[in-house]
Write a structure and sequence with these properties.
This protein is an alpha/beta fold and 307 residues long. It contains eleven helices and ten strands. Helix 6 packs across helix 7 and helix 9 packs across helix 10. The protein is globular, with a radius of gyration of 19 Å.
Length: 307
């Protein structure tokens, strides 16, 4: 059974920017996690042009990626809202996940996603009745929603009469950071979460080889491999909730905040941190942490979402 559709009028078109402190340092957080209860963060921005698409010929959307991808869940919500069939290609599922679906995978399946297990991802092509969305929603159409995000920040900065500021967000494919820089009046800083700095530069060069158009990369002193469990990241995630009263993503945000806190002095003026959503994946991440910690410390208290 599909979940009931959360109506489009639940979208916040201009999300708030709130002031907070972390480790005694002041930051502003752009609360894009509040865009919509399900479709939010940078995935909502990237998919905004599809939400506004009015084409009765479109009946299907296809994509590919990881089995706990935030993009997968976001596209499943888009498909449910638009009444499109959603077909998703992924690598062979782990037996545990296949038997007991959790996290974004379960949520996407509940939304009606039809998945196909493949050894390698097929080439995705749009047709008259089908929209093909690239892995991670990293496609040119994403610029439309991200340009709106940049404009919201530009207007906020002007309204606050700030003379200098920096924008920061963690990056997967780097799509959001790149298009944000193209439309922002202020420098955009980011840190790589999936690959390294060379990976981000390569992704951006595929769009524009002129490095002057690229965001500025900063890295944590001890970057953590994407998806790897790290106790320091878990502790930082819990500390962020206690100090900011904001829930962050457990996969990207600890890496992002680590790099930001270590490099704060390099970012001029007020710092605006873009909350890129992704909270739907925290359930499966917490399950992984609980399983990992139960092996390390028998009898420990279970870690639950504190928000």
């Amino acid at each position: 059974m599909h979940n009931p559709v959360c109506p489009l009028n639940r979208f916040i078109l201009d999300t708030p920017i709130v002031k907070t402190q972390v480790n005694g340092l002041q930051f502003h957080v752009k609360r894009d996690d509040l865009i919509h209860p399900e479709l939010n963060g940078n995935k909502a921005r990237k998919l905004q042009h599809y939400l506004n698409l009015n084409s009765p010929d479109i009946t299907k959307v296809i994509s590919c990626g990881g089995n706990q991808s935030n993009a997968m869940f976001a596209i499943s919500v888009l498909a449910r809202i638009k009444h499109w069939h959603f077909e998703y290609y992924l690598k062979k599922l782990p037996d545990q996940l296949s038997r007991h679906p959790v996290g974004n995978f379960k949520l996407a399946c509940d939304n009606g996603m039809e998945y196909r297990e493949v050894e390698s991802f097929p080439e995705l092509r749009s047709t008259q009745d089908t929209i093909a969305i690239e892995h991670g929603c990293s496609e040119p159409g994403a610029e439309i929603g991200i340009a709106i995000l940049a404009n919201e920040i530009n207007q906020w900065v002007r309204a606050k009469s700030l003379t200098k500021c920096s924008i920061f967000l963690p990056s997967g494919t780097g799509t959001t950071a790149y298009y944000l820089q193209q439309h922002s009046q202020w420098p955009v800083y980011t840190t790589p979460c999936i690959g390294n700095a060379d990976f981000l530069r390569k992704q951006w060069s595929l769009i524009n080889s002129d490095t002057r158009t690229h965001p500025i990369i900063i890295s944590a002193k001890k970057p953590v491999r994407f998806g790897q469990l790290d106790i320091n990241h878990l502790n930082l995630w819990k500390s962020l909730q206690q100090s900011t009263h904001i829930e962050f993503d457990l996969l990207y945000d600890p890496q992002g905040w680590s790099a930001l806190l270590e490099n704060r002095s390099k970012l001029p003026g007020e710092v605006i941190y873009i909350h890129c959503g992704g909270l739907s994946g925290n359930t499966s991440m917490l399950d992984r942490y609980n399983h990992f910690l139960s092996k390390q410390h028998s009898g420990m208290n279970r870690i639950d979402n504190a928000m």
